[in-house]
Amino acid sequence: MRRHLTLLRAYFAQYVKVRLAYRGDFLIGLATSMLATAFGFGFLLILFSKIPRLAGWRLEEAVFLYGFGLIPFGIFNVVSLNIYEFGNTYIIEGKFDRVLLRPISSLFQVLFEVFRIESLHEVLIGVLAVWWASRRLGIEWSVGTLMLSVLFVLCGAVIYVSIFTLLSCVSFWFEDRVGVHPPVYNLIAFGRYPLSIYSQLIQFLLSWIIPFAFASFYPSARLLGRPEMRNLWLLAPVMAAACLAVMLFTWNRGLRQYSSTGS
User: Fold this and answer.
1) 57 in helix, strand or coil?
2) Domain map (residue ranges) of the chain
3) What phi-psi label fits residue 262: left (phi over 0), alpha (psi between -120 and 50 degrees) or beta?
4) What is the rounded CA–CA span in Å between residue 53 and residue 72?
5) Has residue 263 got a pLDDT over 60?
6) Contact assessment for residue 226 and residue 55, using Cβ atoms and an 8 Å cutoff
7) Among the listed ranges 13-27, 62-76, 203-217, 231-245, which one has the minimum average pLDDT value?
8) DSSP of 156-167, one letter per residue?
9) Distance between CA atoms of 245 and 16, rounded to whole angstroms?
10) Distance of CA 253 to the CA centre of its chain
11) CB atoms within 10 A of CB 170
12) Which label site among 27, 46, 89, 180 has the fewest CB atoms less than 10 Å from its CB?
């Protein structure tokens, strides 16, 4: 563990140096990402300017949910670049052979060789949104609540990383440059709004098939004291552990399936 943490620190420091060497490109990427986040909050403001409540949720509660969902999503986005490009970069172009030659976990290398550091702004904005909404709602943050929030954030990040890495594992069996990530990625936005506004089918999909609701909605509902599906937040750590276990099992099976490019 200590060795991997040392390598993680070295990977991150080196990549930050490289990324900031091209400041113009970095600033453009940061501005684009911040604009997308601003559009998300802008949509909420426009929506609540037309209706006072959304399925019983006030604006402040919706901002809390949206902001809290951004925190684990931002953490995931920092390490997500290679996940999306795994099939094209590592499998089809054969760069996975280089990874396997090193005496370090292949999954560790794929996740942490590059970072999308501009996505750290999503974590910051998410924290600010939660702070603003908490002030407006009169939520008092005790030590226990803060620790629970950290647990929820970690669980959410693990769920996102596990699900999309699991999707990347498909490339071990079916070589595809695009992959199956895009349609699933679009479902993340559904988890940033009250789950009760969706049909039973969507609620089931986001809870038990692709469990993004456990990364944002159920934890937020618990922290807000909302009555919706009150006890399901207890399953957030269980769901995170289950997603991680399935992903690791599939990754290891994929390693045995991998046969290189043959070149």
Assistant:
1) strand
2) 2-257
3) left
4) 26
5) no
6) no
7) 13-27
8) HHHHHHHHHHHH
9) 30
10) 24
11) 17
12) 46
